UniProtKB/TrEMBL annotation:
One of its GO terms (biological process) is D-xylose metabolic process. It comes from the Eukaryota. Belongs to the xylose isomerase family. This is Xylose isomerase. NCBIfam families: PRK05474.1, xylose_isom_A. It catalyses: alpha-D-xylose = alpha-D-xylulofuranose. Gene3D superfamilies: Divalent-metal-dependent TIM barrel enzymes. Residues 1-21 form the signal peptide.
Amino acid sequence: MRERNVGKCSLFLLCLNVVSSVVMAAAPPTCPADTGSGCGSDSGEWDGEFFPGIPKIKYEGPSSKNPLSFKWYNAEEEVLGEKMKDWMRFSVAFWHTFRGTGADPFGAPTKSWPWEDGTNSLAMAKRRLRANFEFLEKLGVERWCFHDRDIAPEGKTLEETNANLDEVVALAKELQGDKFHLLWGTAQLFLQPRYMHGAATSSELGVYAYAAAQVKKAMEVTHHLGGENYVFWGGREGYQSLLNTDMERELNHMARFMEAAVAYKKKIGFNGTLLIEPKPQEPTKHQYDWDAATSANFLRKYGLIGEFKLNIECNHATLAGHSCHHELETARINGLLGNIDANSGDPQIGWDTDQFLMDVAEATLVMQTVIKNGGLAPGGFNFDAKLRRESTDRRRESTDIEDIFIAHIAGMDTLARGLRNAAKLIEEGSLNDLVRKRYQSFDSELGSAIESGKADFELLEKKALEWGEPKVPSGKQELAEMIFQSAL
């Protein structure tokens, strides 16, 4: 009897072990992606969830109180004949979302995600990349952007650096599949000390050549990943003092650099749009790509106007003393609006704070321009924005993972509200009518002659003498603001 019971017990334990093994094999890994979880594979690469407990974000409507849901952004909803997702073409910025540390000009880093091991190794780079694509999947965003040095570590030589980038890009290609797309790539030509005097505008020939090699490689990998655009942000292309600067020579060098980039783009068959990102002051006293108008003038002067468009960042507009709406309209009317870095800055702070855009009125103005532009494709809205330094807890070596989602959800909802409001203003028509009526005197025969370049000063003098002192009507600014506010 005892032997029989032992045999039954052994059989039961064997069956239980088999069932447990099957269940464990079938269940997806759900343990958190922290460095001490023991969830990594034998190769050291993470194969579990980076954001356990975070569901795929869904649209629940304006009445929802769920912070992990969209209240206004409904990707498939049509507005003015286009789906919301096609108006927006949202993208996540790898550098802020996965490389941001919470540091600012006056403080050390305050943030470290649980999957970080404190290194900048290739293994760590691949882990971050996997986190990026899980985040995109759960957020419901199809696009991402990166700087070359964000996704892969710099080696001891240029050859080693390029090999590191190739290895990470191979994984990115695999993780992108057919579902995700690269909105744009770029080269980081500002952080490394070799670029202390600039890259394309450096006074040192060796630095200029190194920068060209770095851009060449960055363009190649952007092309390999199917990038829709390639961005030039001249983070240190400017000067601190004209006493030791040959500004004309530096501008000429930058133009030659851009010409070479255009030639190489065509040589490798890259069909993406080349974008210049204007930014004033920071970090140099005077940036050569100060704002949209300055950048447009540079492109015209050097015959590059048909080869580039502009990537407008709202926070950069603030630093230039403009509104984001002004910069977007300047780019649009010059035929140069290519992409938008969706963020905002604090006008009371003198540096680039890269906050998520939360102002519905500003978002409405932004979307007015996007609609006038017929959309942004092949550009989009890239969230060049980061969590606040205070949204972190250094004591836990971590932060609330859900905050990354909440910030992006709020930014996406804000722009979706802006789109809805802009569409309402267009369909209602009062604001457009007000603007049209303000200039209706130019709809006359003489006005048409002026606008077509057929009215000379003699003719205009004759009319002025005939009509006498002109009557100047109200600009109706308060009424315009009333109509605009009524749509918010």
